[in-house]
Specification:
- The chain contains nine helices and twelve strands.
- With 265 residues, the chain is an alpha/beta fold.
- It has two domains: 146 residues, Rossmann fold, CATH 3.40.50.720; 107 residues, Dihydrodipicolinate Reductase, domain 2, CATH 3.30.360.
- The strands form two sheets. The protein has a seven-stranded parallel sheet with strand order 3-2-1-4-5-6-12, sandwiched between helices.
- Helix 4 links the parallel strand 5 and strand 6.
- Helix 1 packs across helix 8.
- The protein is elongated, with a radius of gyration of 19 Å.
- Homotetramer.
- It comes from Candidatus Brocadia sinica JPN1.
- InterPro entries: DapB_C, DapB_N, DapB_N_CS, DHDPR_bac, NAD(P)-bd_dom_sf.
Length: 265
Amino acid sequence: MIEIAINGACGRMGSRIAALVFEDSELKLVAALERPGHQSLGKDVGLVAGCGDTGIIITTAFNAHADVLIDFSSPESAIAIGEICAKKNVAVVVGATGLNPQQHEKMQHFSRLIPCLVSPNMSVGVNVLFNLVAQVAKMVGKEFDIEIIETHHRFKKDSPSGTALRLAEKVCEATGRKMDEDVVYGRSGITGERPLNEIGIHAVRSGDVIGDHTVIFGSLGERIEITHRAHTRDTFVRGAIRAAKFIAKKPPGMYSMSDVLQIQP
């Protein structure tokens, strides 16, 4: 039995993680954490998640023993709880998006002490997409223009999505481009002819879209489009749970969903 703690347990993702962990016979929910002042503090997390009484009260303090903590909160909260997990010897799975380079560096530091898995997208399908996009980018080379379009719900706070950025990183790694030189974020005005190496990223915010990502490879006379659409947040939750099961008994280190899915680079 793998003991699971959840940080950000009352968020859109956190509540679904609580519900699916509670239903999984291989897992035991032991802690549900939220920020100070949250209106659900002191309540049973099952009542918030819609899965009935669990006996787990939502708190701010991480006092329980756990094998793995799953975090879908915010970059700042993920780093704060990561530091606590490093001291308590608890593995972490972080699905929060928008981590800056300094925060990624801190996660790397924690990974010297505990197993850490950080991914901008826990979906199995999206991680297959990362691999496919890298392969296609390498095959078509620089003769094809590459554009990335991501669409999310109106409530998403960061832009572009962490998934879109990771897709751009995969393209750069495969083709020798550089994120800080070749990636542009939307276009406006008279931008002139498209530079050869340019990668365009475009963020759309609309209604309640869970998450759509399309990568376009366009050349003169033909176009390749690869699209992933998430129909439910449970897609990401199931991926995170799969990651938690994978990382529970691993030694300290930084892991990825590619490790979970055994995708070869």
